From TrEMBL:
This is DDE Tnp4 domain-containing protein. It comes from Aphanomyces astaci (Crayfish plague agent).
């Protein structure tokens, strides 16, 4: 059972000698934080069949490529945190997230990226699309403000 931070502070306050404090600090330093594994996978849209692409992203492989190109996304999407993704991968991240509510952890197994990187690419791509096409979108702010408390 790992020692929590509050337990460590309590142990340090109870340590009376320098040797006891050093022992508690050494004990706390050896605590291991288990991190989620990021699989060694590279996303390859070419290896995906059209049937799987339609089930996962609601578009076939050629449709995903055309959609990213016609929407005006750059060939390489670079986020503010320097996460890089090809246009096809960024489109698949957005389409996969929009097609079905899924956790970022599940998507990390598909794309071979950390959850934070997938979130970063998703939000950056959505913001890019909004910058390009936001003037064509209609959002009824009064209706939302009226019904927000429902």
């Amino acid at each position: 059972m790992p020692i929590t931070q509050t337990d460590g502070v309590m142990l340090l306050s109870m340590a009376k000698t320098v040797r006891q404090r050093q022992f508690v600090l050494a004990l706390l330093a050896t605590q291991h934080v288990e991190r989620p594994l990021i699989p060694e996978v590279r996303f390859n849209l070419d290896a995906m069949t059209d049937a799987n692409a339609v089930l996962d992203y609601r578009f076939d492989v050629v449709g995903i490529r055309k959609l990213g190109y016609y929407l005006g996304l750059p060939a390489v999407v670079v986020t503010e945190n320097w996460s890089r993704a090809l246009r096809d991968e960024a489109m698949c991240i957005v389409l996969g997230r929009m097609a079905f509510p899924t956790r970022l952890h599940g998507m990390s197994k598909t794309f071979g990226r950390s959850r934070s990187s997938i979130c970063d690419v998703f939000l950056h791509t959505i913001n890019l699309l909004y910058e390009i096409w936001g003037n064509l979108l209609y959002f009824n702010l009064r209706l939302v403000a009226k019904n927000i408390q429902r």
